[in-house]
Design a protein that fits this description.
Number of helices: 9
Order of helices and strands: HHHHHHHHH
Helix content: over 70%
Strand content: under 5%
Number of domains: 1
Radius of gyration: 21 Å
Shape: elongated
Structural class: mainly alpha
Distance between the termini: 42 Å
Number of strands: 0
Length: 215
């Protein structure tokens, strides 16, 4: 049951958050978008941290119950070579403890992506705050917070394709609105939500491609 939960919880939660965010945007005239976006940002932060903790606990249980070899990994300091070439060498009280390898494995496998996903939201919030300061007409009330949520829902490493999707969609939607509706300005709410959707549809193919193209 726990394995099933760990496998499917990310998909279920992130799609639920996306649907709730979309509904909040659509009814923003009736319910304050800023407040609901903040609630969802807090919930998504909690989700990432709780999921990492759950996955860590489950990994410990599986290794402990799967035989002598995996149980031995729970009593193994981190390899000295890894300590020398990573920042773990600066934390010998963890790396040299009996859980040194398990802590390293759990942080790399579960916690790093969770913390970076939350950090993506913070980075995008700073970007949007800067844009709003100079181009406030591109934002409705609450869209900065909605963008923070969108970046967190995209997560890491999908954030690297989410941001280009946002700005490409802003251009495309602006052209459509100007051509067909004679509207000069496009706010960022719809492009950000669509960018989350496209990110999760195409990230499995685009992220590995970007990694290959990186110098």
């Amino acid at each position: 049951m726990l394995a099933f939960l760990v496998t499917w919880l990310p998909t279920v939660y992130l799609w639920a958050a996306f649907i709730l965010a979309s509904i909040a945007y659509l009814i923003r005239d009736k319910l304050p978008l800023r407040r609901w976006s903040k609630i969802l940002v807090a919930a998504t932060t909690f989700y990432y941290l709780a999921y990492a903790a759950l996955a860590t606990a489950l990994q410990y249980y599986v290794w402990k119950e799967s035989g002598a070899f995996t149980a031995g990994l729970l009593n193994s300091p981190l390899d000295s070579l890894v300590q020398r070439i990573t920042f773990w060498g600066k934390l010998p009280f963890i790396a040299n403890s009996r859980l040194g390898y398990f802590v390293f494995y759990s942080l790399e496998r579960f916690w790093l992506s969770a913390l970076l996903s939350v950090a993506c939201g913070l980075v995008f919030w700073l970007i949007l705050k800067g844009l709003k300061k100079h181009r406030e007409r591109f934002f409705e009330d609450g869209e900065v917070e909605l963008g923070t949520l969108a970046a967190m829902m995209a997560g890491w490493p999908q954030f690297v394709v989410f941001v280009p999707f946002v700005f490409a969609l802003v251009v495309i939607i602006s052209i459509i609105r100007l051509a067909f509706f004679k509207e000069a300005y496009t706010t960022l709410g719809i492009p950000m939500l669509f960018a989350v959707l496209l990110t999760h549809i195409f990230s499995n193919s685009l992220v590995p491609l970007l990694v290959k193209l990186a110098p």
